[in-house]
Write a structure and sequence with these properties.
The complex is a heterodimer of chains A (333) and B (329). Chain A has 333 residues and is an all-alpha fold. Chain A has two domains: 52 residues, no CATH class; 226 residues, MetI-like fold (Orthogonal Bundle), CATH 1.10.3720. Chain A is built from 15 helices and no strands. Chain A is globular and about 85 Å long. By secondary structure, chain B is mostly helical. In chain B, strand 1 and strand 2 form a beta hairpin. In chain B, helix 4 runs parallel beside helix 8, helix 8 runs antiparallel to helix 10 and helix 9 crosses helix 10. Chain B starts with a helix and ends with a helix. Classes of the chains: A mainly alpha (333), B mainly alpha (329). At the A-B interface, helix 1, helix 6, helix 7, helix 9 and helix 12 of A face helix 5, helix 6, helix 10 and helix 12 of B.
Chain lengths: 333, 329
């Protein structure tokens, strides 16, 4: 057991080095070296000594004056101790800006994930038990439609109809906490934040119900037809016990790994949702950095989100090996 | 060969039984027709123009004498037969800015007085173009990489699998945005970047199928007969691994169209004046509270398109995978 986990944990090291290598090369080898992009934009590059000086400074700042391998190692050494340099937009350390943004996005995504699981798993189970009934057909079609609705469109419509605008004014226009919330007691502040998060979380969540509930349904159907379920029924257990204790537990297994596959998509989805609802999380930070060609921030976000996904996959693998011993036995051979 | 034909025929038979999938296929064909015929549906020049007993076809041929003429003007005499949408996608009509749908402008106009119907029709071209070319690219890359790993196994497979694992960790949408910001957004770069980043799913499917198929007797027989690897891969293994790849590609087109419209929505997709549904939607943000047509029409078009491709994908999946439609009761 511990041997399998150790092996899995050690394997993330080469993967992480690969991630950092791709991140660095992508930026470094991108056509149109980005320092000229910035210096050139202001028409300073060819304007003589000053432009030249700025250009040289910029190149030095990003290690472009050194060979690519040396530049990579310098960047990697700093990456390991979480030193991402300073943002070129406001000169603040990138790590500080990320420390502010990351908890917001993580909270947003964890809440969405919990809601996804709470809603889709029961729906999937009921659909499986009532296979091919009207309930099964209608829910699967409804979830399918939700799945196909583009989130940026729904986000806009929610904003239009539910917050301000000409219609209902139920939710705030954006942000995660009101200015006036500072004076509220702790519980009041929590409520205020929750009130701000309703629309972003809804937009982030609705599309995933279909996938998860159909997945649960398929697993459940597979499990129900296993022999041990027939045995359980033959023993005279109540149907409730058969479904919830024997079947449900085993249909949960693949849902664990699913969490890992959902992670990178969620972070990507945050870019759109956060920019629509002005949530100051990683997605918004990322989008602003991209707009401003803020290279240190872009590189930091790319490597951090990839590393987080890597952790998610690792966690799922370990959980999987705990719930399904066959996995680690196979790995041993 | 006839066996393979029989297989695809039976897949088609199963597909046809599925009502929703059939509907999806009709929508897809309809969109194709619109995209293909866009210049014939939305154009500010008439099909036929008759004046002074002479017949012209201004939409099909260039006539120097009509170079800067607005055929719709009442001052141009004669018989004119216009396309259903008598506007081009980029012409301004400053007299009717942000006007609601009417007989003159079937879907209304945007903030520059451009006809929305014409822009929607040309936008269909962009979404189909990006959907198909980007997916074709990544299916090709995925097949090559997955086939190498699955057919040869061993250290080649180990290297490729590690590489796939690394690429999967990157948040795709953010990666695409970043690369587009660095190389500059355009129709071509959107297609290429999606094509270069999207292949991992296909590669994994192909790898898995190849693992299964390469051990089968007909492959071993072919190997025993002395066939080259390339021959075995292309003639024997790949055709048998193709069905799940095509299903995944169909879903891929849906998600690529979604990615393209999201990119255009954020300003990193197709650049103006080329119309894209995502871009139209993004422009509508400033007039949302009264110009409902600018928000609802492009959003609905994206939704219908994605739904159609997903339905076709579902139907296709059920058709090649008998277990899921027969159920296992």
């Amino acid at each position: 057991m511990s041997k399998y986990i150790l092996k899995r944990v050690l394997l993330i090291i080469p993967t992480f080095i690969g991630i950092s290598l791709i991140t660095y090369m992508m930026i470094r080898l991108a056509p149109g070296d980005y320092t000229t992009l910035r210096a050139g934009l202001q028409g300073e590059l060819k304007a003589g000594a000053i432009g030249k000086e700025i250009y040289e400074q910029e190149r030095k700042l990003y290690g472009l004056d050194r060979p690519i391998i040396v530049g990579y190692f310098d960047w990697f050494k700093k990456l390991v101790v979480l030193d991402f340099g300073v943002s070129r937009k406001d000169g603040r350390p990138v790590s500080g800006r990320i420390a502010e943004a990351l908890p917001i996005t993580l909270a947003l995504n964890i809440i969405s994930m919990i809601i996804m699981y709470i809603i889709s798993i029961p729906m999937g189970i009921v659909s499986a038990l009532k296979k091919d009934t009207a309930f099964d057909r209608i829910t699967s079609l409804a979830l399918f439609i939700l799945y196909s609705l583009p989130s940026f469109w729904i986000g806009l419509l929610l904003l239009l109809f539910l917050s301000g605008g000409e219609f209902l004014n139920l939710f705030p226009l954006g942000g995660i906490v009101s200015d006036w919330a500072e004076n509220l007691p702790f519980f009041g502040r929590v409520l205020n934040v929750a009130w701000h998060l309703v629309l972003p979380v809804a937009t982030l969540t609705y599309g995933s119900f279909a996938f998860l509930s159909r997945y649960t349904r398929a697993n459940m159907l597979e499990v129900i037809n296993q022999q041990y379920i027939t045995t359980a029924r033959a023993k005279g257990l109540t149907e409730k016990r058969v479904i919830f204790v024997h079947a449900f537990k085993n249909s949960l297994v693949p849902l664990v790994t699913l969490m890992a596959t959902l992670l990178p998509g969620l972070l990507g989805g945050s870019v759109i949702v956060e920019s629509i609802f002005s949530v100051p999380g990683m997605g918004m930070l990322a989008f602003e950095a991209i707009l401003a060609r803020d290279i240190p921030v872009i590189m930091a976000i790319t490597s951090i989100s990839a590393a987080l996904t890597l952790m998610g996959i690792l966690l799922a693998d370990i959980l999987y090996s705990i719930v399904d011993p066959r996995i680690r036995l196979e790995a041993k051979v | 060969m006839s066996g393979r034909q029989g297989y695809w025929q039976s897949v088609w038979r199963e597909f046809k039984k599925n009502r929703l999938a059939r509907a999806g296929l009709w929508v897809v064909l309809f969109l194709f027709l619109i995209a293909f015929m866009a210049p014939l549906i939305a154009n500010n020049r008439p099909y036929i123009y008759v004046t002074d007993e002479k017949v012209f076809f201004p939409l099909f041929f260039e006539y120097p004498e009509f170079k800067d003429i607005d055929f719709r003007s009442e001052r141009v005499p004669g018989f004119k037969l216009f396309p259903p949408v008598p506007y081009s996608y980029s012409e301004y009509d400053l007299d009717s800015i942000v006007s609601p749908p009417s007989l003159r402008h079937l879907m209304g106009t945007d903030e520059q007085g451009r006809d929305l119907a014409a822009r929607m029709i040309y936008g269909a071209r962009v979404s189909i173009l990006v959907g198909f070319i980007a997916v074709f690219m990544y299916v090709l890359i995925g097949i090559i990489i997955g086939a190498l790993a699955g057919y040869y196994g061993g250290w080649i497979d180990m290297l490729i699998s590690r590489f796939i694992e690394i690429v999967i960790c990157f948040p795709t949408f953010f990666l695409i945005l970043t690369i587009l910001a660095l190389v500059g957004p355009s129709l071509t770069s959107v297609m290429v970047v999606i094509g270069l980043t999207g292949w991992t799913g296909i590669a994994r499917i192909v790898r898995g199928e190849f693992f299964k198929i390469r051990e089968m007797e007909f492959v071993q027989a072919s190997r025993a007969l002395g066939a080259r690897d390339s021959h075995i891969i292309i003639r024997h293994v790949l055709p048998n691994a193709l069905a799940p790849v095509l299903v995944s590609a169909t879903f891929g087109i849906a998600s690529t169209i979604l990615i393209e419209s999201s990119l255009s929505f954020l300003g990193f997709g197709v650049q103006p004046p080329t119309p894209s549904w995502g871009d139209i939607l993004s422009q509508s943000r400033d007039f949302m509270d009264f110009a409902w047509w600018l928000t609802l029409i492009p959003g609905f078009a994206i939704f219908i398109t994605i739904t159609a491709y997903n339905l076709v994908g579902e139907g296709f999946q059920d058709a090649i995978n008998p277990r899921s439609f027969r159920g296992n009761t």
